[in-house]
Amino acid sequence: MVLVVLVLYAFLGSMRTVLVPAVTVPVCIVSAFTVMSILGVSLNLLTLLALVLAIGLVVDDAIVVLENIYRRIEEGEPRLLAAYNGARQVGFAVIATTLVLIGVFVPIAFLEGNVGRLFSELGITLATTVAFSSLVALTLTPMMCSRLLRRAGSKNWATARIDDGFQKGRSAYARALDYCFAHKFIILLLFLSVSASIFGLMRAIPTELAPREDRGAFFIIARGPEGAGFEYMREQMKEVEDRAMYLVNETKEARVIIVRADGDNTGFSIVVLEPWSNRNRSADEIIEELRGKLASMTGVSVFINMRQGISATGGRDPVNFVVGGNTYEDLAQYRNILEEEAAKLPLIGVDTDYRETQPQLRVSIDRNRAADLGVSVATVGRTLETMLGGRRITTFIERGEEYDVILRADDADRRQPSDLTNIYVRSDTSGELIPLSSVIKIEEQAASATLNRYNRVRALTLTAQLADGYSLDQALSDLENIVRTNMPDVSSIDYKGESRELKEAGSAVFFTFAMAFLVVFLILAAQFESFIHPFVIMLTVPLAAAGGLLGLYLAGSSLNIYSQIGLVMLIGLAAKNGILIVEFANQLRDEGKEVREAIIEASMIRLRPILMTSISTVMGAVPLIIATGPGSASRLTIGVVIFSGVALSTILTLFMVPVFYDMLAKYTRSPGYEAARLQKQQAERERQAAGSDGGLSGAAGSPAE
């Protein structure tokens, strides 16, 4: 808010003038709170992010109206008349830009899945604040201008220098426009080059669901051998705790370490770090060091991960790659190939959920010998079930409570495979007890503890974490290539958890981008009553997208759900500048000026409001870029996209929109021309009707004479 006010003061040089658009911010935000309450939208991190972004947006409409009124007052019009005419002159542009921004934000509210539920509130909040900003700009702003604005007198040193600099820049801009009109081919080539750079930048920028955040806590998961019990895991987790306690006792970077040993072969630990301001290292740096200290443990496999906020999978590994097969024997082969090839990738803690590590006994019945001895297969099966697993044979009632009676061998009699030789079955023919070992063959083997399916298909899941600099999208792509190259007979490839959310969110956001682009184009086509004017305006979108991607690349950030939402927002933010130029050029054409003359004058007059609104939007994104602490990585990505996208698109729009308008506008008329034509035809129709009525009256009065 402070940065935006400073921008306004720098351009206008008067605190009375700055007060007009500054009032817009609290009015719009308070109004947005009312709508949010009605719609049941909560105040959370994403809606607060939307309100921060809105500060740079809601003043734009007020700036456009204020600047136009201010310019007319400087030209000598009385304040009241300047406020009236100035607001009317830019009213169309204000409404057009507002509808464009709402047309961009509304599709965000209809994103599906977990990501959609999160970002729908962001879209609703932004759309609401922008809608109220338009209302305030066309009502409150003209009224305040008619009371507060005055013709500028003497300026202080700072504002005088800024004004002189702006006038010199305006003259340089006029000369640059003349050069661009004389070298249209260069402008066209520059536009194509910038647009083509989008594809190269998208390939160069890593893709992930959300930027990795310092969450202030992380998890340690230990997995022991199959069959390991509580005592074994308790000892192993005690060693994990001992190796991690230096974070509490020595470096003072952790506040508490919570350790738990489960009853099976797994253990779990939570390391809660000190607040961000009380430690010098990030959580990732601490995790990397601790991972090295735990790597030498031989009794358990240890994995460390840090829960990320946007994913519904909690603290699970980001890589969840599912491979389907026809049989579990095939899955065992796939697992071996996957683990061997995945070891060559920058992955950490690679594991699968199909491991033949659980010892089992395979019992084979010699049917011929059993038949000779009079022992049926059913008898053998029932005996094994009863002695080893237990079978309910009856119930009894004690004090009104019914209890089951379970028949089973003592634990001491069923500990070893050799205990099966002590079990006897009765012959159905002779009635003698036959040793079970005489009719069965026992074979020890290993099998998986679980036989998993996914979407009704036999499947195994490979899980892993990502090394620094290795994106989730690249990891999934590499794993897919491994499967296609080495396992062509795999029945299916699928994803779970964060990997699945990345695939779904990526396609959903790009669909939203396309829908927002189409909605904005149709809105502009309806308002300008032409397809050429919207086409010229929408040429600014590739420029903004290239700027946003370039900012991500230079900042070393990723293409994630936050930056993708920022790219969607750039559609409306970039189109605003084009609307201001094209709409005013149409007004000048309605006054009888030629296309070239109209677009040059429109560009020169709209230069100051375009710079003011763009710099205000850019300054509104600066706090997101420089912020630190919880959630700063997510805010950084969307801030960088808006900052760089608006900055680059503004610079290029000031030259490319006039050139393309000059090239294409001669093929269409402005909406004002059609309105004037309609009024002319209506007036002629009324004159004809009046003449016809006069003729009839004269004819009716002749006999009376």
TrEMBL record:
InterPro entries for the chain: AcrB_DN_DC_subdom (IPR027463), Acrflvin-R (IPR001036)
GO cellular component labels: plasma membrane
UniProt name for this protein: Multidrug transporter
Swiss-Prot/TrEMBL keywords: Membrane, Transmembrane, Transmembrane helix
Keyword Transmembrane: yes
GO-annotated molecular function: xenobiotic transmembrane transporter activity
Region span, Disordered: 676-705
Transmembrane region(s): 46-70, 90-110, 122-141, 185-205, 508-528, 535-555, 561-586, 607-626, 638-661
